[in-house]
Amino acid sequence: MMNLLEWSGVWRRYYLPPFPLEGKTVLDIGAGCGETIYFYLLNGAKKVIANEIDPESVAFIEKNALLNDWNVEIINGAFDIAMLSTYSHDFMKMDIEGGEKCLVHFNGDLKPCVIEVHDDETKERLVSRFGLLPVARVAEGVYLLKK
Predict the structure, then answer these.
(1) What average pLDDT does this structure show over 124-146?
(2) Taking Cα atoms as reference points, which of 145, 79, 78, 71 lies closest to residue 112?
(3) DSSP letter string over 15-43?
(4) Which pLDDT tens digit goes with each residue over 37-73?
(5) All structural domains of the chain
(6) Residue 47: helix, strand or coil by DSSP?
């Protein structure tokens, strides 16, 4: 819980869409242990579709979902660009430590989203391709882009 309290100001500022989440579905790519799942549910999301590749993190998500009665669908495995079309969602959060590079090959249009980008070239390509806005520099070469 400390991590959520520590980051809630940053998350509220950058990780929420420009519309209320009540009744909406969030696609959480790179869900970690479930901190952002909890954040989106606390902020009114009806459901979170959580994609996470790390088995230990998935186990934490499963345990938290059971203990806290979360409405979460867990996708255990690597992100696949087809997920953007396969899973119906209203907003997407992506933080997959460089894996976001594959988005430059996505032929569809991105729904409202926040994406953590880990290099300048990918940032520029995503800004140009999808009209994403750089909203924060998290660290050297790491940016948050938002639509």
Answers:
(1) 91
(2) 145
(3) TS-SS--BT-EEEEES-TTSHHHHHHHHT
(4) 999 999 999 999 999 999 999 999 999 999 999 999 9
(5) 2-146 (3.40.50.150)
(6) strand
